[in-house]
Amino acid sequence: MATLHLNNIVKDFGGTQVIKGVDLEVKDREFVVFVGPSGCGKSTLMRMIAGLESTTSGEIAIDGERVNEVGPADRGLAMVFQSYALYPHMSVEDNMGFSLRLAKVPKAERREKVLAAARILQLEPLLDRKPKALSGGQRQRVAIGRAIVRNPSIFLFDEPLSNLDAALRVQMRIELAQLHEELDATMIYVTHDQIEAMTMADKIVVLQDGVVEQIGSPMELYHHPRNRFVAGFIGSPKMNFLEVEVRGADAEGVEVALPGGDCRVPVAGDGVSAGDVVTLGIRPEHLALDEQGPLTGQIQVIERLGGVTSLYLEHGDSEWILVADGDVAHRVRDHVRFTFDPARAHLFTADGLALAHLERHPLVDIDRKENRASSASGGQR
Amino acid sequence: MNPTTTKKLLLTLLAWGIAVIVFFPIFWMVVTGFKTEVQAIAPPTLIFDPTLAGYNTVIERADYLKFALNSIVIAFGSTLLALLVAIPAAYSMAFLPTKRTRGTLLWMLSTKMLPPVGVLMPIYLLSRDLGLLDTRTGLIIIYMLMNLPIVVWMLYTFFKDVPKDILEAGRMDGARTFQEVVYLLLPLTLPGIASTGLLAVILSWNEAFWSLNLTTSDAAPLTTFIASFSSPEGLFWAKLSAASTLAIAPILIFGWMTQKQMVRGLTFGAVK
């Protein structure tokens, strides 16, 4: 059992507020990812949970007990650092067993626990090595092993994969997700990489300037971003935004003016009326090339990734990114027409808040594990 | 010869020249120690019958071993004490700095720029009233205070080079501050601590101002031993040289044995 509650957490660094009142509930065995651009306060927030930074105001509770005044050594957490922070003068085995040595665990038991963790991470042949004789990926594993040995109530990961090369990062990402299932532990993970967030999280916390922009499952953030920031941050390439004028709003949705004719986006139109200017948001993968399409643009750049092709389009002073099929034959400077399904579009008011979709996306409320189970059974059928 | 070779040769010659100039007095002192008093004041020469007469007289007249023991106890004692005080101080300055840390460090170092004689009176009176005149304890405390700014400063720079993450990882692993220092910080900075200690030992060993003023016989170290051969009966160069050689020999051998450690420590962190 390990839950975490943050209650109106504030962090003040010499007069500058870097965390401005964060509320969060982390359930037992949940994989929560803090994501946001650099300087958004995600690492600071994690360090406050760890106890490495003091909390200016607000309350941090682990398993319902306030821990603000408890030092990092006594919070029962384990942390994996971006730099790995292995003890350079100790062997892998001593690195992993250090917490047990401090806890005065007998040597034989210590070795047993270290071996168990080493087995999970395939570190057995490396136990006698010093950190400097390990590769980046191996060091990463040792850092994770050090956390596992401690058998913490909550695992904290501070951008653990950002020092690895791309291939290794993908591999470790999968291993970490598996590890989460295997250990069945509560994990909090900080990253600036939204792909890591989308692939591993049960719940994502999007932060900007010390404020939580949205908390939700990956699919909820993708399909129902609460505001323009989240819409732009989640998803790659970035969502397209276009300022449009409202023609009218009713129970069926909001009608907006587009260059190629009006279009009805099925969102709740409370508070908007004809003549207002709103922002239309459409993800690049939801735009489709269509010779009869209402929108036009000239191709400026083509990025061919093989499987898909990203087209960077320009029309007047608006720019679009369109993700098309990998085999699309267009060339730079071609003029193309394209369209989109209004049901997949988003509208944001002038202050950046999203108008709620009338229907919730069917995948939004499925959590990650059920998601896996259903895809597995889907495969059997 | 191309210009770089010429330059290299000139630099080498210069280096040798400086080394000879620096080393010559020591060499001459050692040589003079093996002369008779008459040869010592005769026109300088390297050709003479070496004699141990100087050494014999010196050892007969004073208890060399007692002075040497005092030197050892005082130099190592004050160094140990300085490290014990400086490690926690440098820890807090390196890892828990405040707005005033930088200023404090500079101020500490600035005390080394004042002439010690400026505080001779107060220190003498304090020592007298505390009963520390001519005691090893007295000199140990004075030398500890004398070396503390340098020791703190050096340890501070070594500690600052230790990645903060490693200590934080230790904290997450359950280490209290004391364990963090003993199991992580000290092993990681051992070369630096060793060179700091060596420097403090050497500075204490060679210190003469306070030892001459605050000790007479019981606690007198080797610097006092040398001085006792200079004054009342006039200068006897051979004996004085023999005494000086005896006084610097231990620290010279010690420094020579540890020079690798010294250089490593003094350049520690300069090159990653």
TrEMBL record, chain A:
Keywords, sorted A to Z: ATP-binding, Cell inner membrane, Cell membrane, Membrane, Nucleotide-binding, Sugar transport, Transport
Domain ABC transporter: from-to ranges: 4-234
Record's GO cellular component terms: ATP-binding cassette (ABC) transporter complex, substrate-binding subunit-containing; maltose transport complex
Alphabetized SMART domains for the sequence: AAA
Domain of life, per lineage: Bacteria
InterPro entries in the record: AAA+_ATPase, ABC_transporter-like_ATP-bd, ABC_transporter-like_CS, ABC_transpr_MalK-like, ABC_transpr_MalK/UgpC-like, Mo/tungstate-bd_C_term_dom, NA-bd_OB-fold, OB_MalK-like
One of the record's GO molecular function terms: ATP binding
Keyword flag Repeat: no
NCBIfam families: PRK11650.1
Name listed for the protein in its UniProt record: Carbohydrate ABC transporter ATP-binding protein (CUT1 family)
TrEMBL record, chain B:
InterPro entries given in the database record: BP-dep_ABC_trans_perm (IPR050901), MetI-like (IPR000515), MetI-like_sf (IPR035906)
Topology with respect to the bilayer: Multi-pass membrane protein
Pfam (any one): BPD_transp_1
Membrane-spanning intervals of the chain: 9-31, 72-93, 105-126, 138-159, 180-205, 236-257
First and last residue of the signal peptide: none
GO CC entries: plasma membrane
Name of the protein in its database record: Sorbitol ABC transporter membrane protein /mannitol ABC transporter membrane protein
Naturally occurring in which organism (per UniProt): Chromohalobacter marismortui
